[in-house]
Design goal:
The protein is mostly helical. It has four helices and no strands. The chain folds into two domains: about 35 residues; about 60 residues. The longest helix is centred in the C-terminal third of the chain and has 28 residues.
């Protein structure tokens, strides 16, 4: 193996450890977990309140939309931080690329506002 390939060994070890932990936990919980089932144990239960009616009641998608938009615009900060740290090294090319990136984000933000995705009824 070349010296560059040796640097990937810790990543491989961490991956094997993570997969081993997940598989081991699933196997152990299957062997040590509860084995007896009954109608009372299999009954739906949430917060001590008896469930009434169907659980598949439609509700507004606004919650998911706001969460996705939050993640989308929050990822922007992840790209801004390394750019700000290396601002001097990137020079004018980095500045132009960031202007393009920010302008695309602003176009998306104004589109969201125009479509009234953030307005609550």
């Amino acid at each position: 193996m070349q010296s560059d390939q040796y640097s990937y060994i810790p990543i491989l070890m961490q991956f094997i450890l993570a997969v081993g932990f997940v598989v081991g936990t699933i196997i152990i919980s299957g062997k040590l977990g509860p084995k007896r089932t009954s109608e009372v144990k299999d009954k739906n239960f949430e917060c001590g309140i008896e469930s009434v009616g169907n659980a598949r009641i439609p509700f507004s998608v606004k919650y998911f939309l706001v969460a996705i938009l939050f993640v989308l615009f929050d990822v922007e900060v992840i790209f801004l931080y390394p750019w700000a740290v290396n601002f001097k090294e990137l020079g004018m090319e980095g500045m132009l690329k960031m202007i393009v990136f920010m302008s695309l984000l602003l176009v998306g933000f104004f589109y969201i506002i125009k479509k009234k995705a953030l307005d609550w009824e």
